[in-house]
């Protein structure tokens, strides 16, 4: 049975008037807003919702839980109730907002143009600023999101330690002992989902420029990511190679940093803004045709940097717009240029999973499919519900592991029906989640790879054939 939003109103909850609520809401109910100072879900955005419910069946959490409060419509209703001062910004509200994957499938389904991503991200910003989470949660969020992720040297040190742990045999010994399940904070699950640290890290390439192979047609910059620098070095190298084979000179600025996607999704908008300013400066040089990313989650936030400066630190808004206008997902870029089609054949049956932040947030759906179809002898089989989240969603699979596992199981059932040998996607987080799904499945030999890794292999096959 659906939970009625009215029943979760905290009896007698008094909401303080936000000093900037008037400017924020500009709606008829702004004077009693339960939101505190700062950015918050805005009337001009949530008022577009006509409560039609067409988004419900697109929403993974509603499909799994069947609870209105865990649907897009229900969450928007709760946001409105908080703004009206009728629902406390308290435990119930936080629970339902936290359970959202921020996958934005509801945006695709919505006939009214509700920009749900903006709403949930602003709501999480409010939670971060004005709700006191349990001490352990506060500690872990602070440690990971503020003290480690934004700092490349600290992240690299952690990556080195993790690499020793993973390669020395210690990891297997600890896993076999079962000791991790005795610790709080889902440590067991974190360990199982931790990406393998690669050697060498891609950080070695920061500050270099990779020349185009053949005549230079474009000059692009590459965003190497933060965790991807450590755990997806091969993917980053394949991306740069594929770009170079397509006539791109690839600049990899050394002073770039984490894009801030995890911070935006977790509501740490102050840190996200600092990271955005850093990246806008790092990629500020002229003469670039595009700024390329191979991570859909990063790309969505990079394209939406201006949203971070609409109401706060307005002086960066125009620079953010100029930066974001040049950001392209690598598949989007390659599909927009005259593609180098010197591909060798790859005789395999593949299926493609749309990363939520590429399909729903960036509306890039056909580009990856066109690229995959360009490789000789690749048989692309469409995946049923390819646009439904696999359960990765940043660190959702760690924080809400039970629900994420249910989503992954459904995804793998759809994959099984395609009888595909390889699962192809376009986001590092999805690669990790789908690989976990393959490990747990009856067909453990299946490969999971990024679109550009497949293209890279097809180019290599062509050149191997040409030289033999
Ligand atoms: S589809 Fe759009 S307008 Fe309809 S309930 Fe969902 S968010 Fe609101
Ligand atoms: S972002 Fe995804 S999980 Fe959240 S309400 Fe929309 S469809 Fe549901």
Question: SS-based structural class?
Answer: alpha/beta
Low-confidence residue ranges: 1-26
Q: What's the N-to-C terminus distance?
A: 66 Å
Ions, cofactors and other bound molecules:
iron/sulfur cluster
If you average the pLDDT, what whole number results? 90
Helix content bin: 40-55%
Q: How many individual helices?
A: 25
Q: Calculate Rg over CA atoms.
A: 22 Å
Question: What is the chains' assembly state?
Answer: single chain
Number of strands: 9
Shape: globular
Describe this protein's structure.
The chain is α/β, with parallel strands linked by helices. 49% of the residues lie in helices and 7% in strands. It is built from 25 helices and 9 strands. The protein has helices spanning 21-25, 43-46, 60-65, 72-83, 91-98, 105-109, 116-130, 135-148, 152-167, 170-177, 187-193, 227-231, 233-245, 261-266, 269-282, 296-303, 305-308, 317-325, 330-336, 356-359, 366-373, 396-399, 401-418, 428-439, 451-467; strands at 209-210, 218-222, 248-251, 290-293, 327-329, 348-352, 378-381, 422-425, 447-450. The strands form 2 sheets. A 5-stranded mixed β-sheet has the order 1-3-2-4-5. Strands 7-6-8-9 form a 4-stranded parallel β-sheet, with helices on both faces. Helix 4 crosses helix 7, helix 13 (233-245) packs across helix 25 (451-467) and helix 19 packs across helix 21 (366-373). The radius of gyration is 22 Å and the shape is globular. The model is unreliable at 1-26 (pLDDT under 50). Bound molecules: iron/sulfur cluster (SF4) (2 copies). The site of one iron/sulfur cluster has 14 residues, from helix 3, helix 4 and helix 6. One iron/sulfur cluster (SF4) binds at residues 49-55, 72-73, 76, 106, 109-110, 112, 114.
């Amino acid at each position: 049975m659906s939970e009625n939003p009215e029943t979760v109103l905290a009896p007698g909850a008094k909401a303080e008037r936000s000093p900037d609520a008037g400017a924020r809401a500009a709606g008829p109910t702004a004077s009693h807003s339960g939101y505190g100072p700062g950015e918050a879900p805005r009337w001009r955005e949530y008022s577009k919702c006509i409560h039609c419910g067409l988004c419900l069946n697109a929403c993974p959490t509603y499909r799994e839980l069947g609870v209105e409060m865990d649907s897009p419509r229900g969450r928007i209703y709760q946001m409105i109730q908080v703004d009206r001062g009728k629902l406390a910004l308290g435990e119930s509200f936080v629970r339902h907002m936290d359970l959202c994957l921020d996958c934005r499938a509801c945006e695709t389904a919505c006939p009214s143009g509700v920009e749900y991503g903006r709403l949930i991200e602003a709501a999480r910003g409010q939670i971060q600023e004005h709700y006191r989470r349990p001490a352990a949660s506060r500690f872990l969020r602070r440690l990971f999101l503020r003290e480690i992720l934004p700092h490349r040297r600290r992240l690299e040190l952690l990556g080195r330690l993790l690499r020793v742990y993973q390669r020395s045999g210690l990891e297997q010994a600890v896993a076999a002992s079962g000791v991790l399940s005795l610790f709080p904070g889902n440590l067991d699950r974190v360990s199982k989902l931790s990406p393998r640290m690669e050697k060498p890290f891609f950080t070695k390439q920061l500050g270099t420029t990779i020349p185009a192979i053949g005549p230079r047609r474009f000059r692009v910059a590459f965003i190497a990511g933060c965790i991807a620098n450590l755990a997806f070095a091969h993917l980053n190298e394949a991306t740069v190679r594929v770009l170079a084979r397509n006539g791109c000179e690839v600049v990899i600025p050394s002073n770039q940093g984490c894009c801030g996607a995890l911070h935006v999704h977790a509501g740490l908008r102050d840190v996200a803004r600092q990271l955005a300013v850093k990246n806008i400066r790092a990629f500020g040089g002229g003469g670039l045709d595009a700024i390329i990313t191979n991570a859909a989650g990063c790309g969505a936030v990079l394209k939406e940097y201006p949203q971070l400066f609409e109401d706060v630190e307005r002086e960066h808004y125009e620079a953010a717009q100029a930066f974001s206008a040049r950001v392209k997902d690598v598949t989007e870029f390659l599909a927009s240029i005259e593609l180098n089609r010197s591909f060798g054949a790859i005789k395999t049956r593949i299926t493609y999973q749309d990363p939520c932040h590429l399909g729903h947030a960036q509306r890039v759906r056909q580009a990856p499919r066109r690229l995959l179809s360009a490789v000789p002898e690749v048989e692309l089989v469409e995946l049923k519900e390819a646009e439904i989240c696999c359960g990765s969603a940043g660190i959702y699979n760690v924080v809400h592991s039970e629900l994420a596992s249910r989503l992954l199981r459904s995804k793998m059932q759809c994959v099984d029906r395609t009888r595909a040998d390889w699962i192809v996607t376009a986001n590092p987080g999805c690669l990790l989640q789908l690989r976990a799904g393959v490990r747990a499945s009856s067909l453990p030999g299946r490969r999971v790879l990024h679109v550009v890794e497949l293209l890279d292999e097809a180019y290599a096959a062509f050149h191997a054939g040409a030289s033999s």
